[in-house]
């Protein structure tokens, strides 16, 4: 009887914990991918919309000093 108590039995690995960790990692990866794609597309959209205004050479209207005199 004393031998049974001195030898600890190896603990069985819980497969539920491994699966839950895997699911959490996959969900975080999907969320990260969505954020990455959204930010990248936002930058592309801003770049495409900013080019025509810069390329047209239109400058903001600045009143000339003394023009109304």
Automatic annotation (TrEMBL):
Residues of the region (Disordered) are 49-69
Q: Which residues cross the membrane?
A: 18-39
Q: Superkingdom of this entry's organism?
A: Bacteria
What are the UniProt keywords, alphabetically?
A: Membrane, Transmembrane, Transmembrane helix
What name has this protein been given in UniProt? Signal peptide transmembrane protein
Source organism of the structure: Caballeronia arationis
Recall the taxonomic lineage recorded for the source organism.
Bacteria, Pseudomonadati, Pseudomonadota, Betaproteobacteria, Burkholderiales
